[in-house]
Amino acid sequence: xxxxxxxIGGRVGxxxxxxxxxxxxxxxxxxxxHDAVHATKLSMAAGRRLVLRKDELSEGVxxxxxQVTEEYxxxxxxxxxxxxxxxxxxxxxxxxxxxxxxxxxxxxxxxxGDKVRIFADVLPGCEFKEHAPKMGPTLGDFKHLQDWDIDDxxxxxxxxxxxxxxxxxxxxKSVVQQQQVIAAFKAQAQLPDWHNVSFGSxxxxxxxxxxxxxxxxxxxxxxxxxxxxxxxxxHKDNGSAVIRAESGKPVKERLVMDWHNGRLCCxxxxxxxxxxxxWAVFAVGVVNALE
Length: 291
Known about the structure:
Helix content is 37%, strand content 17%. The protein is of the alpha+beta class. It folds into two domains: 1-70, no CATH class; 73-288, no CATH class. The strands form two sheets. Strands 1-2-4-10-5 form a five-stranded antiparallel beta sheet, sandwiched between helices. Strands 3, 6, 7, 8 and 9 form a five-stranded mixed beta sheet that branches. A hairpin with a 2-residue loop joins strand 7 (252-260) and strand 8 (263-269). It starts with 22 loop residues before the first helix and ends with a strand.
């Protein structure tokens, strides 16, 4: 069990104890808080008043920390994405640079500006149905999803990489054909064999789309309905799963997303062979942290 440590003398009286932070990182956060107070250059009288209102100060700091920890998808620059892979995935710098360049060049080919951030540091513990409505505008706060049996586990600490534009070649195709488009994308971007690229889970597509919208005020969907890798299991009124007669397995429907009236929408659609004109996929990759 980690022992609580008294605040360092002269610093803000906030003890930062977290199983996800080691001592050196906690020290860095405490230094940030110390420097923030020092930069205000408070008078003695103002300093005494601050001490008298220590509870309000603590609540304010905790509110900011809460906002940071609830921002599960945090967009990174290209360089920060390289640093992330070197630091957290133990990749050689040249390998990380190759991955970043592959996505950046693919995005540029689709007209995505080089200043648009297409990589995100993802915190562990993000649950799609619970946290997506807190990340940005969603249809009905996704209340219609809350009773759905969705196969989308919470996130691990990872880096998510994507092109914020549905792949043009994936439009009007079945799932099998779209998977072939993803494979072609990976080859053309010269991404390494170990790197997995897919449609992205509902969690990943929602997280990246809402982070993109927050940063740019633009939807990445380009009027398309986008398939994800996530499915929901159909249930009868009595709560039991609907079983497919020929296979004896539960009936599942794929989650799809689009953007309508300024909000992210999510539905379940059963057909993987449907090739509707406005259906497409994103190219989404993941690099998992080793720690």
